[in-house]
Every structure is written in structure tokens, then in C-alpha cells.
Amino acid sequence: MAASQEIQAPTPGTLMRRRVFGHYGLMLGGVILLTIVGMALLAGVIAPHDPLDQQLARKLIPPFWHASPKVTSAHPLGTDHLGRDYLSRLFYGARVSLLIGVAAMLISGVIGTTLGVLAGYFGGRVDMAVNFLITTRLSMPVVLVALAVVSIVGSSLTVVIWVLGLLIWDRFAVVMRSATQQVRSLEYITAAQALGASTTRILFTEIAPNVLNHLIVVATLEMAHAILLEAALSFLGLGVQPPTPSWGLMISEAKSLMYFDPWLITIPGVALFLLVLSINLVGDGLRDVTAPENRS
Fold first, then answer.
1. Is there a cis peptide before residue 243, judged by omega within 30 degrees of 0?
2. Could you report the per-residue pLDDT of 153-203, keeping only the tens digit for each?
């Protein structure tokens, strides 16, 4: 009789793959987000036309699902009021939205995470100072301050990124402060301090890995927040300026035609909705699969 074989426990990598592929929200959001990212990266290759090319003779061609004699396979999503191909502008507009979302999130993340971790770990006067900064920031409405700054400094892609990055760091600071306060009193932090580990080593090797899942969620939320804020600024005429393709700007340019050609607003609006939805789904999924209670 053959000896019974021991059942081997799955490796951490196997467990992680099971959690990732078994999380339907993460998979759905990941597929949508990867599709949009691929669309943005390959815009120069897959876009059928120059997004800035204007041909008034072909303006307001409806998309392929319209029963109109003007529909043409050369412009499957139609053209705008200046005759620019809408599919090409949609592809290039994804670049602008993703660039602003990622860049603003990184700027705000560095500021807010640094302040929040320092306040949560040191407490005392450092915590009081950071709380004062957070309270000051929360007293300023983001959209109104962004509108004022952009209208004074001038509107450009770089200005929009820095304005948004410097205005949306408060959630990072609040969440990371709370998470660090919970972690700093645990036994392994006390053990590291007793062994003489430096503050820098404790912050980067002990605290950072255990607050990472909180950081992931806030980062995805703020990335989506930055994308929506850019769209709002562009809609008001103070965001990305023409003729740069931007989904918010496309919606703004189409608002006067929304009752006659609603697809001009619907297409970039749906694209914006899917991008924000996918980012939130990915953030929630990563939080679930990286939570400390799910690592064992």
C-alpha cells in the first residue's frame, strides 16, 4: 500500500493569485483600466486620424449607430463641430486624463503621506502642526481655489497638475495619520525600538508595509478625484485648453449641441465614467487582497 502523501500548503504566491483572480471587482476594474491605459499608450498607432485635424466639410458626422446617410466608416464615432475625428480625440484624451490623474495623485500622495506618517508616529507638537495644516486645507473649497489659481496663473496642463496635486493631499494625511497611530503601538514596533532601530528604518520597514493597503485605497480615490476635477475645470474653460484633446474639454465643447447631437457629450462622458469606475474597483480590490488579515 502506497504511503500517504502529505498535502502541501499553498505558497504565498499561489494564495495571492487565487485572491486576485477570485476577486471579480478587481478583475473587472483591471480589464477596463488596462484597456484604457493601452488605448492611451497606443493612441499614436491606433488612432485613425490626427486629433487636431479640422475639416469643416465633414463636421458633425454622426457615429456608426445612427441611421444617417452621413455615417461613414472613416469616422466610426463621428466628428465634432470642427470636423475632428471623435475616436482619435477620445484616444488622445485618455492620455491627458491618465497623466493628470497619476501626476496629481503622486504629488498629493508624497505630501499627504509624509505629513500623515510623521504626525501619527511622533504625535505631540508634530501632530498638532499637521492637524493645523489639515484643518486649514479642509477650510478651502478645492474647486473654488483651483478656479481662482488657474484664472490668475493661467491654464495649462502643467498648471492644472500642480494645482490639483497641491490641493488634494488632505485625505492622504488624515488616513495615513490614523493608520500610523494604530500601528505604532503594536509589539513589533516596540521590539524594533528596543533593538535600537533608527526612526527611518522603523518608518520604512515596519510601518510602511502595514499601512500600504490604506495608501492604495486613498491613492486610487484621489486619482479618480483628480481626473474628475480636471474634467470640471476643463468644462468651465479653465482646465486643459484647446485644441489639446481632453474628455472634460470635449464635454465642454459639446454642451451647446447636447440637445441636437447628444452623442458628443455621451461618448466622452461614458469614457470618463468607465475610467473613474475602473480605478475605484481596482483600488477596492487591491485593498481586499493586500489587507493584513488576508495574508495568512
1. yes
2. 887 888 889 999 999 999 999 999 998 988 888 888 888 888 887 888 888
Cα dihedral value 174, 177, 180, 182, nearest 10: -80
151: CB partners within 8 A, 6+ apart? 238
What DSSP string runs through 214-266? HHHHHHHHHHHHHHHHHHHHHHTTSSSPTTS--HHHHHHHHGGGTTT-THHHH
Q: Kindly state the DSSP code that residue 85 receives in the 8-state scheme.
A: B
Q: For residue 79, give the 3-state DSSP assignment.
A: strand
At position 227, the amino acid (one-letter code) is I
All structural domains of the chain: 23-39+85-294 (1.10.3720.10)
> Hey, which residues does 85 pair with through a beta bridge?
79
Rounded distance, CA 155 to CA 239, Å?
6
